[in-house]
């Protein structure tokens, strides 16, 4: 079959960019992205395309190309479901905060709501595509809901996990290492549905990079990929601590190790800890699934990746306190960067939140500068932890518009995000305007150690 109308439920970091690229590459298909969040949809429809709700290099141009032609953003979920031949579910699947599996399992309530809504509305056959990251075997639950509450129409369920990384979403979507499509390979209808989705990606992705598997392999591959990626970061971060006590340099170690073609050079950058909405949640979910099958050794193995990451964030903050003569009470600490990585305005699970919280518990005064994150977001992130009254966060944390303002008269600076512009800062002037000794903690190994020491900074970097 040829798909003419696509609906995507969820206009977030995945739904928005993914559907924009599909619409741009497939002008003959109408793509409607729907969301319950009216503010978000209004932002996607903002006349000024630079005001779309997600900052991603290159995304505004793609949206400008397709929006109003064959790309639409709407809050009318029922209408979009009704019209569509293919429905992507791209809603959030965060860690559960209540009940069984609290703090570990993925919360599937939004997924189930989507399934029930699709079942209620659909009066013609639909291909339903899991775009969200889901526990293995979720497709079975979706099928049960759709078949038992629907109007007797046929639903084919596909798994098509998304591998884009934030900050490079458009590039990743245009040139994916692979597109993964899982479906029912045993029936003609299943194979037809898979082919319909293959045909969409084949508009711009070489056939060799489009991989088809059974649905369970596809669901599990997504959790596995994120677990492997996060494991590399925790592995190099574990080595960074060893480097600091032995005089080895973690960048040199990473380079030497990464030149082994069996290991490879990517994803070996030591840091203050990985953040982002997915690594932690997906590994916790994997741990939960393993435990639920009684596979305790498997669960313990992967849990260690998270424990190492928590340790890395904590020891970075603790080192600041220890180095500043065991007290930061009343001291001004400048945090450069709040986003969980550069080139995104996303702050979910950013290491900066936990480092700031640690320092605030020690009564530090924090000044934050991030080129893309709003003041409102920074306070929301701290308030969400519930460590102190909201007013206290506003009293102790100031958010400013330039790195210069953030660093003036600071006791210490902590580089939290690897924004390119932090390399270009006039560090000489920053040094002159700080209190002495001027402490600089580089959580991203971004700055030239020798240059910073020559300028007079007391300089500490993750992994030396
Ligand atoms: P997000 O929170 O940015 O977006 C999800 C959107 O879905 C929200 O705007 C929410 O309002 C909307 N929504 C929830 N329930 C709805 C409903 N019933 N009807 C209509 N709209 C509804 O989340 P995201 O970052 O785009 O992630 C979505 C999924 O993709 C998650 O499963 C995530 O694990 C996965 N994923 C994310 C990334 C990433 O880089 N962020 C990458 C790959 C995969
Ligand atoms: C990650 C994966 O890279 C994507 O493939 C996946 O689709 C996505 O999760 C998801 O499922 O949500 P993302 O979290 O957007 O993408 O960004 P990454 O580039 O993976 O970075 C994650 C965190 O690890 C960041 O805090 C980053 O600074 C940190 N990191 C990454 C390191 O500390 N060192 C590295 O070498 C790489």
Automatic annotation (TrEMBL):
Top EC group: oxidoreductase
InterPro entries attached to this UniProt entry: 6-PGluconate_DH-like_C_sf (IPR008927), NAD(P)-bd_dom_sf (IPR036291), UDP-Glc/GDP-Man (IPR017476), UDP-Glc/GDP-Man_DH_C (IPR014027), UDP-Glc/GDP-Man_DH_C_sf (IPR036220), UDP-Glc/GDP-Man_DH_dimer (IPR014026), UDP-Glc/GDP-Man_DH_N (IPR001732), UDPglc_DH_euk (IPR028356)
Active site positions: 278 (nucleophile)
Keyword Ion transport: no
Enzyme Commission designation: 1.1.1.22
Domain UDP-glucose/GDP-mannose dehydrogenase C-terminal: 334-449
Superkingdom: Bacteria
GO function term, MF aspect, one: NAD binding
UniProt-recorded name of the protein: UDP-glucose 6-dehydrogenase
Organism: Zunongwangia mangrovi
